[in-house]
């Protein structure tokens, strides 16, 4: 069920596509979809995305939120949404490392046709570990993620974007 939204289009050639120049091709999708694909935003945000320690996570999430606000000031919804996705990915990845020391949630390789997609795809879930520092990093990212997600201008622009482009 997609609630009337178009799904993220994984068939586009993101290596050669600049979505700042062709914004009409962008789809919000679900959750973090496309976070490591959409250019030029990936190149602008990824260098700041880190969560190894709470201090690093705070610096990283603050910088990514600053980028969110800069995109907002420019009226760049895609940039805002991509910054939001990186903040969300900070939560999910730090949480995964908090629960699984290696960062691997499942046992066994991801099938080639499933790379880049979430889910177990029939693999066994590994046992949980506990890393309180990574859990704290996840909480730090969550705070900034919620600020971005709940921003009234972001919510308005997201609704307008989805009404216009799907």
From TrEMBL:
Protein's organism: Larkinella bovis
A family per Pfam: DUF4385
Composition-biased stretches (Basic and acidic residues): 121-131
Span list, region Disordered: 98-131
The protein, known as: DUF4385 domain-containing protein
Protein origin, superkingdom: Bacteria
Listed InterPro entries: DUF4385
